[in-house]
TrEMBL record:
This is Phytanoyl-CoA dioxygenase. Residues 17-88 are annotated as: Disordered.
Amino acid sequence: CCSTFLPFLHRAMPKRWKRGARDDDAPSGTPWPLAVETPAPPSRSRAEQLMQRLWKGELEGETPDGSLSRPVIPHPSQGTAKGYSSRGPRSSEAFFPVMSSEELAPLLVPLHHGAEKIKATFQDFGVCIVTDVLSNAECAAFEELWHDDLLRLLDGHKVEGEAARQAQNVQQDLKAWPQRWDQHLGIKGMASKHGLPHGSFAWAARMHPKVRQVFADLYESSPEDLVVGLDNVFWCSAQEEGSSTNPEWLHVDQNHRTGMTWPCAQGVLYIWPSEGSSSSTTVVWPKSHKEAYEKMMDDPEAITRGRSMGGQSVKLKELQLPYLREELLSEALLNSRRVPCPAGSLLLWDSRTVHQGWRGGPRLAQPICWEPRERRSEEALHRKLWMCGSGIASSHSAAEGRVHGMAKEAPSPSLEEGLPLLRACLVPYGIASGQEINWVEQHEAIWPSDNPKRQADVNNLRALLPLLRPEMEEVL
């Protein structure tokens, strides 16, 4: 079978995949980056076999090999029961406590309790944690898929010294991935670069039948009538330390002033547990999707941002009415909590619910959003098809099909002294098996410029469509 990076073994790097200082050292005529894998990177077919087993439910009853739980990081958050850290926040930073067991209990709904209980909890609180979506063996399989995605990126070319030793350790154990290397993959605890939003891990999570069914039940629809968003992977390495404060950026992801007034559910499928005070997770203000949200929609900030479909996000600290901003921020800082999510659980929240990310400790999870197909325009489908072939993420919304704000340029190899070289881009899952070399050859047609937002809007897809899996259009 063909390795994911077979094209890089035999062909020169396309022009849009930028060349850096290390290229000057490469022998003339040598494909760049030179791909010398020891051991060879996992094949696409191996990953797809594991994905099929996950989707067919073949791993539900199996016992995983080895330990799944990520190591506990001994850096507890230093905070008071509510409000700010006991040491006081830095400017624009806040402390949010982890939910107590009493606060968490009404939000936890085991999957087998059924669709009605999940929907009622979601509608009442604006947030719900569906537990037991994945078994331990399935979580272990997802961890393996993510490990494979990262190994496909690692290039053995000119890896020396400490980086070479670390790379060898990573080959054996995902948890050996150094925290410093995370900067290669993205910022703010997200893996947004190198095509990772379209790797095997991300697509295995999006397409998992139980996940799709949860969303279908929320919309009282069938899974076949839904389409999916293409968000970034949530990733902080096992070596990530806990944090006592985080930047405060509490916001909602749906602005009714844009005209988008339908209910929208966002989700995150957790592979590693994000529990306790030393884990990256999501902060939510339960029940803020009702009265607090309506107040936000009356603020001039929401009205102004609503003039553009890209103005869905509204931050509390940017509200223009001083009395309303202070009132809602005070309530939010008092009532917002970090959500402890068990491994194998699906965190759901209403897009109108006030929330933000919390970075401080390990996390391996995949944001997922399925929405009714009727909401998605042909223009959005066009953009999402291009994203599936280019490796670029979308915002959470399946209906919008908007290029993610972190996508700033075309993929390129990561070059930094003392760190291993990472290849430009995974072959996206959406590229059909056997089309890998053709995908590289068509790179100029897919990326005539380095601007992802522009390319998503103007690309005619003529070169890309023949390379895509036929089933992609059905879920986009």
